Amino acid sequence: MILVDSFGWIEFFTDGPLADKYYKYLKDESRVITPTIVLYEVYKKIKHERSEEEALIAVAQLNKTKVLPLNESIALFAADLSLKHALPMADAVVYATACLENADVVTSDSHFEGLSGVVFLKI
Question: Does the residue 51 lie in any domain?
């Protein structure tokens, strides 16, 4: 299983320079998990920079993956990971979700660089 973080989804939806690299991980939606915090971040960013219609289309695509809500186990583990790795809240939730689901995080967000279980994509 893999977890593409918000950076990756936004890169993919906006056809950024790494879109093709992210597509490689997104083409098999049955292998992708998505924390609800990623839904929030992707919807907000695309709605702000593009339109509500494009944001809703993006959410529909995300909903084809296995969407996982934030629960107590993830929240507490995320807090521990945040303290250990100095991760911002959303990134800690993403990382905790991936760890608990035995999934690799695919990202270009520098907060994740060097963490185990992370596939870091660079231009």
Answer: yes
Cβ(91)–Cβ(112) below 8 Å: yes
> Is 59 domain-assigned?
yes
Domain count, the chain: 1
- Tokens 């939606």 belong to which residue? 29
- Reduce the DSSP state of residue 101 to 3 states and report it: coil
Phi, psi angle pair for 92, to nearest 5°: -65, -40
State which H helix or E strand residue 32 sits in.
strand 32-35
Phi, psi of 61 (to 5 degrees): -65, -45
- Residue 115 domain-assigned (yes or no): no
pLDDT beyond 80 at 53: yes
Read off the CATH number of the domain in which 17 is found: 3.40.50.1010
- Please list, in sequence order, all residues whose beta carbon lies within 8 angstroms of the beta carbon of residue 14, skipping any fewer than 6 positions away: 46, 49, 50
The 10s digit of each residue's pLDDT in 19-48 is 999 999 999 999 999 999 999 999 999 999
Q: Can you tell me which residue has the tokens 């521990």?
A: 80
